[in-house]
Write a structure and sequence with these properties.
Largest sheet: 9 strands, antiparallel
Number of helices: 10
CATH topology of the largest domain: Multidrug-efflux Transporter 1 Regulator Bmrr, Chain A
Keywords: DNA-binding, Transcription, Transcription regulation
Order of helices and strands: HHHHHHEEHHEEEEHEEEH
Distance between the termini: 16 Å
CATH class of the largest domain: Alpha Beta
Strand content: 15-25%
Number of strands: 9
InterPro entries: AraC_E-bd (IPR010499), Cass2 (IPR029441), Homeodomain-like_sf (IPR009057), HTH_AraC (IPR018060), MarA-like (IPR050959), Reg_factor_effector_dom_sf (IPR011256), Tscrpt_reg_AraC-type_HTH (IPR020449)
Organism: Eisenbergiella massiliensis
CATH superfamily of the largest domain: Regulatory factor, effector binding domain
CATH architecture of the largest domain: Alpha-Beta Barrel
Oligomer: single chain
Pfam families: Cass2, HTH_18
GO molecular function: DNA-binding transcription factor activity; sequence-specific DNA binding
Helix content: 25-40%
Structural class: alpha+beta
Length: about 300
């Protein structure tokens, strides 16, 4: 439950600062997360990105303010983070379906995006396959690239990176390193290797297990630090089954577990096979610590 409390603390901080220049790093820090990892968990749980949530909440408050006060449109626009009445007007019209001026009219209909409140709700029981593994340092061979840590941007960029690696046969090269006895088996992996909050970048990698073979051109060997991992198994066509697995992990498993996810490197494991088959199986590796371990650090 402490993990849920930390998430609510971050949302409360966000709500208290909607009229300020919001730093994703500051919001994430309230929940003891890195900016990118917080954005990812927020999106999984809430069904929208952090940026979308901020925009919708600001436009909700702006609409209420225009309808109930005599504030100038330019003042409301600046208050809620818009540089000009034009950019504010376009965003306002997309969200509310009317212009800022029309919002002042009696009986004007406005849309509202409510404030989030994180709650643990008991629902129908469901089965989740997982195991806990404590592993020493893991070596992987990867192709890596830096991307923006803005989730909305890399939701477009990362699939394009996978497609590029497919077209230029990087995936075939990496598949040659797969081994049945490897920790990940005959599978490719995707992961965020590192995050540079100052530069607002992440280093994302596509790879496979490594066992000392010659390193191909454009590839590098990376080391994953020793960790305790909770490994979850999902079944079904990609990417829907994997997205559903992520949601269940963060909305069902962690809220009632002694473990809390560490901010950092989740590993997505994609075995060989037909990824559109209802029987396709994938894995999600999440580094964890217990609530007790977290309290000792604090």
């Amino acid at each position: 439950m402490n993990w849920i409390n930390d998430l609510q603390k971050a949302i409360n901080y966000l709500e208290d600062n909607l009229t300020e220049d919001i730093s994703y790093a500051d919001v994430a820090g309230q929940a003891n997360y890195s900016p990118y990892h917080f954005q990812n968990v927020f999106s999984i749980l809430c069904g929208c990105t952090l940026g979308e949530y901020i925009r919708c909440r600001r436009l909700t408050l702006a609409g209420k303010e225009l309808a109930s006060t005599k504030c100038r449109v330019i003042d409301v626009a600046l208050k809620y983070g818009y540089d000009s009445p034009d950019s504010f007007g376009r965003a306002f019209s997309r969200f509310h379906g009317i212009t800022p001026s029309q919002a002042r009219l009696s009986g004007a209909k406005l849309n509202s995006f409510s404030r989030l409140s994180v709650k643990l709700i008991l629902d129908g029981g469901s089965t989740m396959n997982y195991r806990v593994e404590t592993r020493g340092e893991i070596e992987v061979i990867v192709r890596k690239r830096n991307f923006s840590d803005n989730l909305e941007e890399n939701n477009r960029q990362l699939p394009a990176f996978w497609e590029e690696c497919r077209r230029d046969q990087t995936l075939d090269k990496l598949s040659a390193y797969q081994a049945a006895e490897d920790i990940f088996g005959n599978a490719l992996i995707g992961m965020c290797l590192s995050e540079n909050a100052q530069e607002k970048e992440i280093t994302y990698a596509i790879g496979a297990g490594y066992h000392g073979e010659p390193v191909g051109e454009g590839l590098s060997v990376e080391r994953i630090a020793a960790n305790t991992w909770v490994v979850f198994e999902g079944t079904g066509p990609m990417p829907g089954a994997f997205q559903e697995l992520q949601k269940k992990v963060y909305s069902e498993f962690f809220p009632g577990s002694e473990y809390r996810p560490l901010s950092g490197m989740d590993i997505q494991v994609y075995p060989q096979g037909d990824m559109q088959s209802p029987q396709y199986r994938c894995e999600l590796w999440i580094p964890v610590e217990t609530d007790k371990q977290f309290r000792k650090k604090g």
